């Protein structure tokens, strides 16, 4: 079996260290001091330690002066529950900083809120609820359009400050408030901040953990309760720590890293656990790549994923938020359920074969798999840097794609970047120009698109049993439409390379 081959070939770069009931200690060669100590030394001066709302007494969990060492996730939950410390397995009431919902789950959440709190009840804080239509937007489906109408009426009734509405479905550019995919929009609009708690009615809300916050998906019932009270009862998860060291090869992206991890621990390996990512390789990642890493922790069953905030985080947030935030970091002797060490320099481009994100294989091992299409988009693979990566492959090849290649920017800002941002080394060409020359479809309106399938008229939806290489996050039967469709999850590098050949292709065939 391919899986057994992969497992044996990856043992030199993936080492698991089990917890024995004592605090975990990382060998000197794998210590990632810069994630713990250096980050503390380099905080921008404008970031100060505050609490919102103000408290008369700063609790030890917010200052780091604790009697019991804690992980990042434990510290955030201790602060949010106004406790000096918490332990894994403990149930705590947390104060939520941001609640997000969208057009799929928003109507259900609103219905529960009104049923339990009353038809005339007011939400707990109109400025802490973010509502983003994004999933089933550009469709003639009446019920999908009705969902957005429900959101619009509720936001007007409650005077919700952050409602990113879309009224003209024929031209998204005519909608100045419309953003696109919720998880990327949350980051771009400054709703993701270190040390906070962000909950959303979407499983990929964990995307925001890239900012050093606790971010997790919740159901409509829980969201309805948060909408009315600003609180949620959560169980403190134990933490798995992933130490990613080594220099990232030029042909690898964060998508390869998370596929490696999920393939190693399986789709159930992090069930209701926090996944913390540290190490020199993580520090070298951009914010968008860190988002990709955290975005797919739920594919391993993770409750949340988290990356320590550092100068990269602070630079990204400049000009995006005026809310002061207070980052936290895992203590050196914090207790981790398990630790994993990965030398990323030894990894190869990967794919997840149908029909599970942990069905890992090397891209080069699937070179005989003929494909029908390529899809580049979603919260996982539709960010600006994802398209820049794909454009780099097309530019290096100088060839045209051999299968239909669909491009769905995550947000309106990403769409504009495709037409305005020059690709390095292209002689001044933009992504859109390179995509046009390669024969790709014109970039579509920003949305979740076909990632979740959606109504039959959804752009690029698989209405027939096709084979697709996709930068999305799930490849379950029916995920992108047809239940007999086959989806190979891959990085934008691998997706673009596959588009050029019509087969699953290792991007090293085009990138040197």
TrEMBL record:
UniProt entry tagged with the keyword Oxidoreductase: no
Coiled coil: none
InterPro entries: Acnase/IPM_dHydase_lsu_aba_1/3 (IPR015931), Acoase/IPM_deHydtase_lsu_aba (IPR001030), Aconitase_4Fe-4S_dom (IPR036008), Homoacnase/IPMdehydase_lsu (IPR006251), IPM_dehydratase_rel_enz (IPR050067), IPMI_cat (IPR033941)
Record-annotated Aconitase/3-isopropylmalate dehydratase large subunit alpha/beta/alpha domain positions: 91-362, 365-502
Keyword flag Iron-sulfur: yes
UniProt entry keywords in alphabetical sequence: 4Fe-4S, Iron, Iron-sulfur, Lyase, Metal-binding
GO biological process: amino acid biosynthetic process; oxoacid metabolic process
Pfam families to which the protein is assigned, alphabetical: Aconitase
Source species, domain of life: Eukaryota
GO molecular function ontology, one term from the record: metal ion binding
NCBIfam families: hacA_fam, PRK00402.1
Protein's recorded name: Aconitase/3-isopropylmalate dehydratase large subunit alpha/beta/alpha domain-containing protein
Organism this protein belongs to: Papaver nudicaule
Lineage: Eukaryota, Viridiplantae, Streptophyta, Embryophyta, Tracheophyta
